[in-house]
Every structure is written in structure tokens, then in C-alpha cells.
Amino acid sequence: MLTAVQIKPDVYWVGALDWNARSFHGYRTEDGITYNAYLILDEKVTLIDTAKVTFKDEFLSRLSSVIDPSKIDVLVCNHVEMDHSGNVPTIKGLAPNVEIYASAPQGVKELTAHYHDLGYKGVKTGDTLNIGKRTLTFVQTPMVHWPDNMVTYDAYDKILFSNDAFGQHYASTGRFDDEVDLPEVMRQARKYYANIVQPYRMQAANAVKAVRKLGPDAIDIIAPAHGVCWRSHVADILDAYENVFTSGKLEDKALVVYDSMWGSTDKIAHAITDGFMAAGVPATLMDLKDNHVSDAMTVFLDAKYVAVGSPTLNSQMLPTVAEFVTYMKGLSPKNEGRVGIPFGSYGWAPLGPKNIAAELEGIGFDLPLGTIARNWLPDDAYLEGVRQQVIDLVK
Ligand code: FEO
């Protein structure tokens, strides 16, 4: 039997570790993924979420190490996306009398669409469920990350079961923030927000407000559905969500993201980056041949300066750069005050960099340098000019 981890007396993590997952909806998950489920032993044995269906055996093994799954009385489905609800039918099959709760009406509708009508009960914000010593309170958090999302608060244990909110794609044997590499976990929390939650900034900010309303001493543990539980750094992750991730505030830092055919656009990218360096603005250079768009978006999140470069290929920007632009636009970043620097080299038509400029302008970037487009090869004098333009821009 696999290990379940007690996170409070009578509360256990019974999830699954997807160590080798390297992609989630195309988002590169270099540290793997976890599907967290939690078991509460009370008068009514309660399970919070399940796991992806392909992890049925692992999930059931951890669950069975604590209790016979047929004894589960209540299943709370905080979110219907299949990485969490995939084993709802499994639990129903093993415990036919289980009461299954989901948000109303959307969670119930989505569960019915995915798994037919298994007798779901809908709950709304403020609804409570007594399971013995404990009373669970539900708070709907629509669009963090699907319309059905909700969180469940257990006041007895001071645990917030937050589902996708505050999660990280991170597989580890440590179950708490103080048992793992914290800077890496914080980076993964940022990456998760930047690539999954970012389009729903307002809803995520409202979720944080709802958590704040519980009071400063109300939470010992935030137990998300992905990654580690926050125990020693609850204040840090709330602060990051409130003041960095959802705030839309931009920092004086730069992302230089591009692809190149024969090295000319690469040279311009390096000149731009060096300009930021000379001006004391932290910059990250990412060639899209070697870097994933989801990592670029992690840097992009609060970067005031974003330089996007491509040469012209068949009247277009390179497909790698188009992928970045499309992906970035889909995440609906708040671009107020964002400075774009479209750039690139070209042979006979500057359409690669010009198309980038049109895209960035169309989503609200300021383009104070216009389009940096170089015919054929940039020589040293040209590159020094680009570098100086960047220095002058950020002065
Ligand atoms: Fe982790 Fe929206 O599912």
C-alpha cells in the first residue's frame, strides 16, 4: 500500500504523484504534477476531491491505507476538471451511498455532463455541511479556473482546501512548503498562476479577498489540489497572489523573447538585453528554439518591458514567435503601462517585426521605440545604436 500523509489529526493527503508529466495543456511541467485529494475522518468520512483517472490505483492505494473506501460518506468535488474529478465514478462505485457535493449550478451541470447523474448535491457560497466535529463551509470561486470552481473551508482544522488556487505543478515526496525547495515552489506557483489562472485575474483577486475575510488566524494550512500545502508560508503565497500575481503591477524588468534564422535577430536580442543590463534593469533573454512559451510567460507576468523578435519568413514572423504571441494573447495579460519592443531582421520585407508590432499594439502595449527592423545583417554600429536606444528608453 502506498503512503498517505497526515496533515492534521484525522486529516490525510491521499493524492497521486505524476512524477514524469512534462506537459499540462501544453504548459511544460518540468517538475511533474500532483493530484491532491484529502481525507477527513469524522462522523461522516469525507473525501475532498479525487485524482486523474489514470492514477486510480495509486489514489485508491493511499486512500485504502487509511480507510476502506466503501466507508466514505461525503465526497466534495471542488472542481470538475478531470485531473480532480476523474475518480468520482470510482468512489461512487465503491461507496454507492456517498453524497457528492459540487458548486451549484455549474459544478452539478459539469459533473452530470462528464459522469451522468450520480445524484449530485449543489452548494453555494456560505452553505455549510456538518460532518461531525467539523463543519465545512463552501465558497464559490468561479473561473479559478473553470466556472464550477469552489473552495472548502474546514474551520475546526483551520484548513482551506483551495483546489486550483494557490497550486503549483510540482511533484515531491514532501507535502509541505517547509519540506521542499521553497524558491522552486514559489517559482512554480508563479508559473502556475501565469499560465493557468492569469486570464481570471479579477476572480483570483476576489478569492484572495474571501480568504482574507476569514481573518488573520483562520488558516493554518492552505491545501491546494496541486503541489505542496502551504503551512509555514501561508502569508507569503497570499501576499504573492495579492500584491504580485493578481495586482497587474509591472516591475522594472525585461523579457527579451525571440527566434532567429541566421543569427541577425539573435544579435539584436543580445544588444537589447545588454542595453537593459547597462541601465540596471534586470532582463531575461529567451530564444524560443530552446525555451518554452510557458517559461517565457512566467517572466512576462510582471515585466514592464517585453521585447519580441523575429525575422521575416514567408511574409510572417517565425512560427515559434507566432506561438508565443498567440499563447500570450490568450492569457489576457493586463498590459497597461507595458512597453513593447518589436524587433527583427529581414531580407526584402520587414513583415516579421512589423506583424509583431501590430500584435503588441493591438493588445495595449506602448511601443515608444517603434519597430526595430534591420535589413540583412546588423553591424556593430547598428547594434550599439539599438543598445543605446534601450538605455535612453529606461533612463
Ligand atoms: Fe487542476 Fe482546473 O484543474
Can you describe what's shown?
The structure is a single chain. The protein has 395 residues and is α/β, with parallel strands linked by helices. It is built from twelve helices and 21 strands. It has helices at 56-64, 82-85, 88-94, 106-115, 182-197, 201-213, 234-245, 264-278, 293-300, 319-330, 351-362, 380-394, and strands at 5-8, 11-13, 16-18, 23-24, 27-28, 33-35, 38-40, 46-48, 74-76, 99-103, 120-123, 128-130, 135-140, 150-154, 159-163, 221-224, 251-258, 283-287, 303-309, 339-346, 372-375. Strands 1-2-7-8-9-10-11 form a seven-stranded mixed beta sheet, with helices on one face. Strands 12-13-14-15-16 form a five-stranded mixed beta sheet, with no helix packed on it. α11 (351-362) links the parallel β20 (339-346) and β21 (372-375). The longest helix is centred in the middle third of the chain and has 16 residues, at 182-197. It starts with a strand and ends with a helix. The relative contact order is 0.09. The mean pLDDT is 97. MU-OXO-diiron is lined by residues 79, 81, 83-84, 145-146, 164, 225-226.
